[in-house]
Amino acid sequence: MVKLKFVQSNGTEIETDAALGMSVMQAAVNAGVNEIAAECGGACACGTCHCVLPQEWFDRVAAPQDDEIDMLEFVIEPQPTSRLSCQIVVSEDLQGMEINVPDSQV
Questions:
Q1: Domain count within the chain
Q2: What is the per-residue pLDDT for 103?
Q3: How far apart are CA 44 and CA 59, in angstroms?
Q4: What is the CATH number of the domain that holds 60?
Q5: Is Metal-binding one of the keywords UniProt gives this record (predicted)?
Q6: pTM over 0.70
Q7: Which of these, 36, 33, 73, 81, lies nearest to 55 by C-alpha position?
Q8: Are 58 and 81 in contact (CB under 8 A)?
């Protein structure tokens, strides 16, 4: 298991354990992070799992693929380190990762 920390827009932190191989989106849903709606269930088709990573974590995860880059154009207030949490796979390298949920997800 890998520990992840979700920081909601109001500052509330939710820490959770995530299984290797699951998506960060699924970890958020399992942990009750309400701002991660995950309406498409992880198909990279809606943007409702938008998150913003601190730069050091953004640099550590695999680069986004073209379909994710395209979908990020439609989220409200994208940031340079925006990602769709459904496209980030939990690995041991993500131990302790902080994931910020933007105001636009509320």
A1: 1
A2: 86
A3: 20
A4: 3.10.20.30
A5: yes
A6: yes
A7: 81
A8: yes
